[in-house]
Design brief:
With about 575 residues, the chain is α/β, with parallel strands linked by helices. About 30% of the residues lie in helices and about 25% in strands. It contains 14 helices and 23 strands. Strand 5 and strand 6 form a beta hairpin.
Length: about 575
């Protein structure tokens, strides 16, 4: 069913509006992109699995519950029925050890300036958590340093930590990138488009690498892309983490957020001005500022350890079975949650992400029907995405198939069920040579790419593919289209808004027997074509020059005995 004789020599697409920017003037080799016929993808599979995973019996698919047991059993059975082989030796699962840490008895955040104390209440003015497995978290008289955006990016000639020692100290950090207010996509950090350096995950990781005791990010709604209510709800209550093993990365004592006006008051007490320091932090010659103040707080921690499971199947390749193309989707959701007005308290997660889990099975079936391609196809349903991509992070840190032998992958997170569209939404275009495969697949399907309309929100860094990207594996993240055949972009925007306002992460994200699956099937055909192109290709696509993940991939490939 595949034409290997014709390869498309496709050059990199320079998109006029995209999440990332491809540096001009560079020369990239042409890639081997085979033509691929349509796949035989079962709509019945999509409907049946989405419906079953969304029933109340599955209790919202919270990891560590009966819902997980039912979900793992269903996906394992359907992978086997599709014709895949177990993906972890003779097992369909990869065990993911998790630890849940719940902080209690929070003392205020106290900022001491000489004989004067500034005192801030937990929840309304600041939040904090620990990643360390200690019964008591204590931050005592830790010197405070303002480190701008908290970025150390040598490939971009930027280091906010240069010339300052923050070991054992508390760093205050601005959210997003230095150039996020730029209208266009030109700049040291891609202008308006957020890079990984703008995400809170990176800022905490870098602060820990620098030896900081605590890291406090200044919340600001526009650059964060969400309000304080999201911070307060997300950073309070139980926090789950993947077990870190024998060689964990550096950890701070505490990570947290402070309200913008709290940060303004703290800096003013040190004789500094938040607006002036923010402006200075946007420049390359910014120097960190030691404030001559200290921070103190404490809280208690309780722990719960449990094991969750990633579900994995493989279709071994014919010619290059030790080269892998991966498809990912998360099976978990929120379990029981805040009740709707009618009393329904089960977050069924039909769209998010029963649809993506069903898509893994439907694509597996189609690839098996077509016959194994030259490279192996891996189908990975990961756990604990809603807790912070934990299943994906665990796999990326403990890969069953070596990452330097993983060609690339496609992530599927929440198919918003709608009719057919003229386009697809590309989250993170311009980042890697996978765009060339996407462009070829879109051309074959007669569709066009629409760049993410909110690049400043950093959506590329918020789903499971990101765990692989951090380790250097090129990954695509494509959402459904916004330009619907019936109703155009206005109808697409209205549908997305209705879901976001009324169903997203709530009890009303439920299966609907009246859904129009034609748009989902259209998207699945695109994912099938892209995956098959990668699996039949002889090329190893890389990140584009200048991308934040290029160096990691190049280093992995340089040391690899086989693969990339």
């Amino acid at each position: 069913m595949f034409t290997r004789g014709l390869a498309l020599a496709v050059t990199i697409l320079f998109m006029t509006a995209c999440d990332g920017v491809v540096p001009g003037g560079m020369s990239e080799p042409s890639l081997d992109i085979p033509e691929v016929e349509d796949g035989d993808i079962s709509q019945a599979t999509m409907v049946d699995i989405t419906r079953e995973l969304s029933t109340d019996e599955f209790e919202g698919r919270m990891p560590g519950t009966k819902g997980e047991e039912l979900t793992v059993a269903l996906l394992s059975e359907r992978f086997e029925a599709a014709g895949l082989q177990p993906g972890n030796g003779d097992s369909w699962v990869q065990e993911v050890p998790l630890i849940e840490i719940t902080g209690t008895n929070f003392a205020p955040l106290t900022i001491t300036n000489g004989d004067t104390d500034l005192v801030y209440d937990y929840g309304s003015e600041w939040v904090g958590v620990t990643y360390q497995e200690e019964e008591r978290t204590q931050l005592a008289n830790s010197e405070i340093v303002f480190v701008g955006y908290g970025i150390n990016a040598p490939e971009r000639g930027w280091n906010d930590y240069e010339g300052v020692d923050v070991a054992g100290k508390t760093v205050i950090i601005l959210v997003n990138d230095p150039d996020f207010e730029t209208e266009g996509l030109e700049g040291t950090f891609n202008g308006r488009a957020m890079t990984y350096y703008g995400r809170w995950t990176y800022k905490y990781e870098e602060a820990a690498r620098q030896g900081a005791a605590a890291a406090l990010i200044v919340h600001d709604t526009q650059p964060a892309s969400y309000g304080w209510n999201v911070v307060e709800s997300s950073w309070s209550g139980p926090q789950a983490y993947a077990a870190r093993g024998d060689n964990p990365p550096p950890l701070t004592t505490m990570n947290g957020w402070v309200q913008k006006e709290v940060a303004r008051e703290i800096l003013a007490a040190a004789g500094q001005n938040l607006d002036e320091l923010t402006a200075a932090a946007k420049t390359e010659d910014f120097a960190a500022v030691e404030l001559g103040m200290t921070a103190s707080t404490s809280f208690e921690n309780t722990f719960r350890t449990f094991t969750s499971q990633n579900v994995i199947g493989i279709l071994p390749g014919t010619e290059a079975p030790e080269e892998y193309v991966i498809h990912t989707a998360h099976w978990d959701h929120l379990g029981r949650c805040t009740p709707a007005p009618d009393g329904d308290d089960i977050c069924n997660g039909a769209v998010d992400n029963a649809t993506g889990s069903a898509a893994l099975v439907a694509l597996a079936e189609a690839h098996v029907k077509a016959g194994a391609p030259r490279r192996s196809l891996v189908f990975l349903a990961v756990t604990a995405e809603e807790s912070g991509l934990l299943g994906a992070y665990y796999y990326a840190a403990n890969p069953i198939y070596p990452l330097d032998q993983t060609v690339g992958g496609i992530n599927m997170d929440a198919f918003l069920v709608a009719g057919p569209s003229q386009d697809v939404t590309v989250v993170g275009p311009g980042k890697s040579q996978l765009d060339q495969f996407l462009d070829a697949a879109l051309e074959a399907d007669g569709r066009t790419p629409t760049p993410n309309p909110n690049p400043e929100a950093g959506y590329y860094y918020r789903s499971d593919h990101f765990a692989f990207a951090k380790e250097g594996v090129p990954m695509l993240y494509v959402d459904g289209g916004e330009d619907l055949v019936e109703g155009g972009r206005e109808a697409g925007a209205a549908l997305a808004a209705e879901y976001r306002e009324n169903r997203y992460h709530g009890p009303k994200d439920e299966f609907d027997e009246n859904w129009d699956w034609s748009g989902v099937m259209q998207d699945l055909q695109l994912f099938y074509r892209m995956g098959r192109m990668l699996a039949e290709s002889t090329s190893w696509p890389n990140w584009n020059e200048g991308d934040e993940f290029r160096r990691t991939r190049d280093e992995a490939c340089a040391s690899a005995e086989s693969g990339c």
